[in-house]
Specification:
Rossmann fold; 4 domains; 15 helices
Length: 426
């Protein structure tokens, strides 16, 4: 077995004083990275992804070099609009930064390469930790794909997968001798004794006393089972999955227990976030997934006790594809009994913000659909007649978000809507 095979390395940032401001923009908007997988054929076996990454990196270089030189020239000539140039670069980078979900192929020793298909962006990190024979405690919200990731790790490591949910007694882990003198084994023992990847799911919903037996096995590399003491197999891997950090219940997951500090100290902790690119890919319905993710972001920002996981995107897309009405899908997949007042509040706040003009005149836009703006940005101006003279008033965005509607140059009346801004999901 290979050890410590998969690692993620950050690319080096450019260090040039003249380019620093635009570089800051680029690296804020584009978290570029490369994945180096030793003893595998990841790069050669997935040429399509490799080529796209190379093309993207070349495009970024073009932005950093050519665009900056253009801006520098205009500054020198005291011409042009620096704000417009920066905005154009930001939009270009925004269009480039969304990459396909990770498509991972791994190879152990001289075995045949395995195509794991599309995977969570953090799976290489999880594999790297496991390959170093460390126990991993992955913390993430419901529906983040923690169990599926554990199954994929077992496949990549070429070992059996074993699973146990929340336990109320240590005998669920250690087993016992029944009334007939027969040993009743457990999933944990099979993995610990014979090798395999063991997932202790919802460990934070287990009784702390039961987890202490688990702690002993991890700390001592042996375990007292009812019939004998067993040493930890060299190919035993362990993942504990939870919704909390083991510090007890929180506002979202109220049925969670506080775990012993010694138990928690046996693990390397890994935050397991939603992979929204993977979510959209699995759902296959871009508009629906964007809507779900927009609602989720608002709920998280407002700390509302309601879970909207990637399952809402995937299940909802499937129902919509089979002819179920949008209203029914939202009620059964998204809201699930949420009170009407909270539901109304969410819908009102995620709705696009409308920008109106304050007087009659000619509206002249300065932005286009897809541009990202802050509330101070000028999105256009109104040209009007004031006592026989032509005057102009600038119109600010008033909100942070993305332009989803902007009027063409045309005559407008007071209170006409000239723009709509999507303030969530950005």
């Amino acid at each position: 077995m290979s050890s410590g095979n998969i690692k993620i390395t950050n690319k080096q940032r450019l260090n040039n004083g003249m380019e620093q401001n635009v570089v800051d923009i680029v690296y804020k908007l584009v978290p570029t990275f490369e994945i180096d997988v030793e003893d595998t054929k990841w790069e050669s076996a997935d040429e399509s992804i490799k080529e796209e990454i190379t093309a993207l990196d070349n495009k970024i270089e073009d932005v950093l070099e050519n665009k900056i030189m253009e801006i520098d020239k205009r500054l020198g000539d005291n011409q042009g609009n620096l704000s417009d140039e920066i905005k154009a670069i930001k939009k270009e980078i925004e269009d480039l930064k969304v990459r396909k979900p990770l498509d991972l192929i791994v190879k152990l020793d001289n075995s045949k390469p395995q195509d794991l298909g599309k995977q969570h962006i953090q799976l290489p990190t999880l594999l790297q930790i496991l390959a170093n024979k460390l126990n991993v405690y992955i913390v993430g919200p419901a529906g983040a794909g923690k169990t599926y990731a554990a199954i994929q790790c077992a496949k990549a490591l070429e070992v059996e997968f074993y699973f146990t949910g929340a336990v109320a007694s240590e005998f669920k882990l250690t087993g016992f001798i029944d009334a007939h003198g027969k040993i009743v084994s457990t999933e944990f023992r099979k993995a610990f004794e014979n090798g395999g990847l063991f997932l202790f799911d919802e460990i934070d919903a287990s009784y702390p006393q039961a987890v202490l037996a688990f702690n002993a096995a991890l700390s001592n590399d042996y375990m007292d089972f009812p019939d004998k003491k067993v040493s930890r197999h060299k190919n035993f891997y362990c993942i504990a999955a939870a919704n909390t950090y083991g510090q007890g219940a929180d506002r979202q997951y109220v049925g969670r227990n506080q775990l012993d500090a010694a138990s928690l100290d046996r693990f390397v902790f890994l935050d397991w976030k939603y992979d929204e690119n993977l979510e959209r890919e699995l759902a296959g319905n871009q508009d629906w997934s964007d809507y779900v993710q927009k609602i989720r972001r608002y709920i998280e920002a407002q700390r509302i006790r309601h879970v909207v996981s990637p399952r809402a995107s995937i299940y909802g897309a499937k129902l919509l594809a089979n002819g179920i009405s949008r209203e029914i899908v939202e009620q059964t997949i998204l809201w699930k009994g949420l009170d009407e007042a909270t539901k109304t509040k969410i819908l009102e706040n995620i709705a696009p913000k409308k920008i109106q003009v304050s007087k009659d005149g000619t509206f002249i836009p300065r932005v286009k659909v897809g541009d990202k703006v802050t509330k101070e940005d000028i999105i256009g101006e109104i040209e009007y007649n004031y006592y026989g003279r032509t005057s102009t008033n600038e119109i600010n965005a008033q909100f942070n978000g993305t332009i989803i509607l902007i009027s063409d140059r045309k005559e407008v009346k007071e209170n006409d809507v000239i723009a709509e801004i999507d303030c969530y999901g950005n």
